[in-house]
Amino acid sequence: MNTWFWIIAGAMLVLALVILIRPLLSKQALRSQDGTQRNLRIARQQLAELQQQHLDGVLSQDQFDAQYLELQQNLHDNLDDDNSAPHAGGSGRWIIGLIVVLLPLLSIALYLQLGDADAIAKAEMQAENERSLAQVREMIPQIIERLKQNPNDLQGWLMLGRSYMYLEQYTEAAGVYAKLYQFQPDNLEVMLDYANSLAMSRNGELNGLTGELIFKALQLAPDNHNALWLAGMAKAQSGEGGQAIVYWQKLAGLLPPDSSNLPQVQQMIAEVTAQMAAESASASAAPITNNIHVNVAIAAEYKARAQSGQTLFIYAQAVSGPKMPLAIVRKQVGDLPLTVDLNDSLAMQPGLHLADFPKLKIVARISQSGDAISRAGDFIGSVELGQLLADQTVNININQEVK
């Protein structure tokens, strides 16, 4: 049975017993009211402190649950002590005895016939979550008002950002962390929280500014668990499974053997390893007949304006024909200068091959937004090929801006 249910049921039974027995007790029982009220006030104050520590990140979810359970048990014990009645005489003792024995037995028997402890526990948990959400919503205007009076309050901004994240208002959270990042551009905690809020507001995409923040954080703290996890995810998204595995294997080595996060890291390593093996087998099954070696560099002017974490697309497309790339590779600005191969194994659409078109355009483009679609402000370089040879090399210098 659910532990929470029995705690709640026990508290309810104690309360019911107090209500039923109280009229049978002497007037001396009234003296316990002051103690009961005092214990309730203390319990409410301690609960508020626990919830605040949980919101501030001082307590994990497991720590909060354990301390909340302990607080509830202490309150139960204190209320039981405060409401203990003096000895009653004569028939009063018999009546009290019958109530104390029969009421719990009848209640438990009725529950075993009709009740659902799990459903009750879930309902209680849902109600508690709703109360917590309501409390966080009430706190936000107070935090905002405090920040108006003291805009340099780092902890206040962090609390506001995490409050928005708790409410799953990711766009608002990203806006808060953007301001924080202006104040604290080298603060590791700010960088990772900002990256996480951006990723959540963009459906998990880790390119562009998000990737830049992740790898900047990793450079500052190479053993940071969160940075290693996110760096692996970013590399996996960009098709660099081998580098993703390197980050995750390092993370797995840093985690304690009993860590609840270790199985998830190991699962991701296994999945990416299997995916890479499948891709390698597929590439081996289809021999490459046309291969273009692309050497990519960037002009100094544009290198100074680009960010190392920005996405770099290198692709081949038909000069006359579909605008969709025939083959594409995704890298990052920090990888420049580099050499990649474009061939039919990287085809975007089955059935379309590089040799199907008499003229090809080879493009290297730095995306400001992280999108595959070219936009104004992107940095670009390109060359045209008239005749596709079985194996050839082209050189591209990124030296223009898309207007």
UniProtKB/TrEMBL annotation:
GO biological process, one term: cytochrome complex assembly
Entry GO terms, CC: cell envelope; plasma membrane
Keyword Transmembrane: yes
TPR repeats: from-to residues: 154-187
Pfam family, one: TPR_CcmH_CycH
Transmembrane segments: 6-25, 94-114
Record-annotated Cytochrome c-type biogenesis protein H Ig-like domain positions: 292-399
UniProt name for this protein: C-type cytochrome biogenesis protein CcmI
Gene name, Swiss-Prot/TrEMBL: ccmI
